[in-house]
Amino acid sequence: MIDTVKIHIPILATYVETHTHAKGAFYKTIIGINELGLTGSSRCVKDGVPFEIYHAYQSLPTSHSGIGYKFYHQTYNTLPYLELNCSIAKILQGHNVYGLDNLLNCIQMIGVVYDQFPKLWQHLDVQNAKVVYMDITYSAVMQNKKQAEQVRDYLRNVDFKGLRNQSVIGEKDHYNTVYFGSENSRIGRFKVYCKGVEVQKEVKELEKLAKQNDLLAQMKLKTIFTKELQDYADKLVRIEATVKSRQMQQLGIPQNLWQLYDYHIQNPNLFTELWQIKTDAMFTALQGKTMNYADDSEIWQALESQLTTYTKTGRESKTKARNAYNFYKRIQQSGFYQVKLDYKGAERTFQMNVKNLLDCGISKAFLQNLNNSKDNTINVLQVLTVDFNNQIPTDVVIPTPNGEYLEVFKPYFMHVVNARLQKSQNEIFYQSA
To answer: What is the Cα Rg of the chain in Å?
Structure first.
């Protein structure tokens, strides 16, 4: 699906003055930011008068999610432009757990500007709007949340010989994400993460607001972030590829929004192919590799229910449960008797750890026979399978853009189509001459 998209809409050239600069052409609008219906900010104030007015990055609210926007009134080597940045999946349905491979959804994003900023709209060259950034995402559906996390952790620990970005491994905010490629890459990078972890973070924030009688948060929990959606997200290993301007240029893919939409109609596999280009090196590196696999979700549930404790302030703590689970995984990895040898000199600690597992209903005989035999290994690509035709639950209907917007923007698209058809007719004419 297409998730986050960044679009630049230039201002009409008639509202721009051009200057020569060491960096190249310098462009500046001849109409003020406030005159365009935008709220300007000032970098400096002299004698009580603000000057060096600019437009700060802001968020434009929609029914479900915000649209980031900023107007660049002074630019080098490109006309001043309005930048729009948002998840087109979120503004249509309130979440991005799943969505469509359809650039037409960008119309919803531009349509909000059409409604909210009529003055600005009159000065924009919408026909030359261009896509400068896209996040194209597809997911592999696992059996459960635990398997999804196992796959993610396996990818984090595999030696990809420089393919993976090591710089953010230790950062707490990124613990759920495995990055491939540099964040500053001019062609984009890709990343792998568990979608359920991301969704649960958002759900917890909404639950806090809902307890404070936030009606919007209550509505989202009831109608958008349903148990069914959360359960589905828990099973997803999301692989998200970022495509930037440079790579689109290298591949000969048009950046003009309307031309790109037309190009996609003629090349329906465009976005899956772009995603495959970005992720091919990872999948090639995984060929023939196996990972240890065991469905330990029931083990974790037993430990979580029995060993979860509460602090004096009433806060829930799962530290004891996690420690017990890590001890269990260690036995699974090395075998009961090897772990016992590892605890030589700390036998009491070993026995206490074993007792925690026994108290949760896990038999000692089971632990003594737990090891990483061949029965516990599986081909990685057998698990990490992305089915492009099975990215949306069967009972789900994805919302479409506002019908009024379709009529407003149809002329821009038809202009591109007519130009292409005219070009084809001319080529046929000259070939037959």
So the answer is: 27
